[in-house]
Amino acid sequence: MASRFTLKDHFRESRLINGRLIFAAVLSVLVFAVVIVRLVVLQVLEYEHFDSLSNRNRVDIEPLPPQRGLIYDRNGVILAENIPTFSLEMVPEKVPDIEQTLNELSDLLALTADDVNEFQQRLNRHRRFQQVVIRQRLTEQEVARFSANRHRFPGVDIEGRLIRHYPQGHLFAHAVGYVGRINERDMQIIDQQNYKGTLQIGKTGVEKEYEDDLHGDVGYRQVETNVQGRIVRELMSVASHSGDDLFLHVDINLQRVASEALGDYNGSVVAMDPRTGGVLAMVSKPDFDPNSFVSGISTKEYGTLRDSPDRPLFDRALRGHYPPGSTLKPFVALAGLELGVVTEHSKTYCPGWYTLPGHDHRYRCWKHYGHGHVDLKDAVAQSCDVYFYDLAHALGIDRMHQFLDLFGFGHRTGVDIPSESRGLSPSKEWKRGSRNQAWFPGETLISGIGQGFNQTTPIQLAHATSTLAMRGVTTAPQVVRASRAAGDADMQLRNSNNVHSLPMENSQHWEAVIDSMVEVIHGARGTARHVGEGMPFKIAGKTGTAQVFGIAQDEKYDAETLERKLHDHALFIAFAPANKPEFVVAVVVENGGSGSKTAAPIAREMIKQHFGIIEEIDEQPDQ
Fold this sequence. Notes:
Layout: H1 10-45, H2 47-58, E1 59-64, E2 71-72, E3 78-90, H3 98-109, H4 113-125, E4 132-135, H5 140-148, E5 156-165, E6 179-181, H6 184-187, E7 200-202, H7 205-209, H8 211-215, E8 219-225, E9 231-238, E10 245-248, H9 252-262, E11 267-273, E12 278-285, H10 291-294, H11 299-307, H12 316-319, H13 329-338, E13 348-350, E14 353-354, E15 363-364, E16 372-374, H14 376-382, H15 385-395, H16 397-406, H17 428-435, H18 441-447, H19 458-469, E17 473-474, E18 480-484, E19 492-493, E20 500-501, H20 508-522, E21 540-546, E22 569-576, E23 583-589, H21 595-611
Subcellular location: Cell inner membrane; Cell membrane; Membrane
Function: Catalyzes cross-linking of the peptidoglycan cell wall.
Membrane topology: Single-pass membrane protein
């Protein structure tokens, strides 16, 4: 059988191989072209973008928050300081699962619901590459526990920080104020660049008013990190600039004496140096511990303070409204002299009550059987209501309002602490505008003894008394005395007061009124004689009692049958020495009853402390 032979088609095979080679070559060229184009895009067109991303993987910019300035009293005693503490912080972009991480941290460190909620709020205000505080003030045990488990929590670490602390606690809660965590409202008004890395901001008092001085300027450092985010080395840094230290006029010893003298009573004590306007003491009770607010107060604790009927968060020194009562009488007496309505020797008969012409209603004097014939000195010394009913009726409410306006009644004093109230000095125009009512003659009478619509704040009362003590030279109250920049040895005085004199026709009128106030304390029938006992100089003062509620014409006020919250407010103003004053004090004791029995002894203790007066105690020999 013949065998078959198959001849190869070399031409066909060659064409097939060539086709494959061409396809492979074209494909290679295309792939190479794509690679080249991509390289051009990466290395030329998008070089800066990817270079930046690359650097962010190895270079971090960390803010260096400034150290907050310290606050001292006039003696150099520290009132606000910075103490080291540990805080637990997270960088969100480095955490795979934030919710799971928080749950595990809660089990490890017993985080509360408040801690988690506040962290979530802060998280919304920060960028994902910024550190966000989870909890501050970790204990040593918590730091050790976390350190042993740190490998379980990428993006979470412990940072050492300085935190605000108030070593005097309650004593300066209102005057110095406190710092608190920066919230959304704060973020709208601050320079966010300068507050990077800062956790707290001034919320009240000096801390708030002088925030720009105390905070300082933020710095930063550029660091290289490894893939785990650990710092390998520091590339460069710009140091932060610490805030200024502040020195107050306030004296811690006077502040403590005032607080202790108030005891269980609510109220306020304000003391000033009338020569400079420096506020030497500013007490508001009840008070609170400002340290509770620094790291974030719990909802329960804040609710207790907010809902307390005694309102410990309310600054009575700046915002408390009280009828001035008889402490207004020296100013009304001066108005009578200056406007020519009375003279020093004009007398009024006090039978224990006063009636307007053509009316039967009796406006009673505190002394129900009357004071008899009294002149200006007697009227102020014995606090005769009838004398001032008659004087107020002769002056009229509008002239009285205009004169009291000179002393700042119804106006803010301009003290360098925020949230001061205006108080109220009534007039016909005020009543018509605010209440759409006419003014009645009887309202003028009770305004003349500091009752009715009159409302004053303790700082306002102290400021007006200071103007009276200085014979018309008025100076705005000032809490901060000086500042010192970081690194400087010298202090810079912060005297921003505008000093001016009141226009008076006869300077002798000042002396007549001040003599009558000296009679209050050193006169035989003065209402506060015990204040001047044993003092080496003359003191001028005035007691005051302000009704909390009205009583019927034929009823008698009996404190023993009333709840304490219905007792009269007790007030007292004084300055010393009377002829060359350097100390002014205003005391308001809520529901304290008599100004002479409750408020005046507090002022006496303040005067003794300021002038270093030590009472001698007679020792009886052993029997």
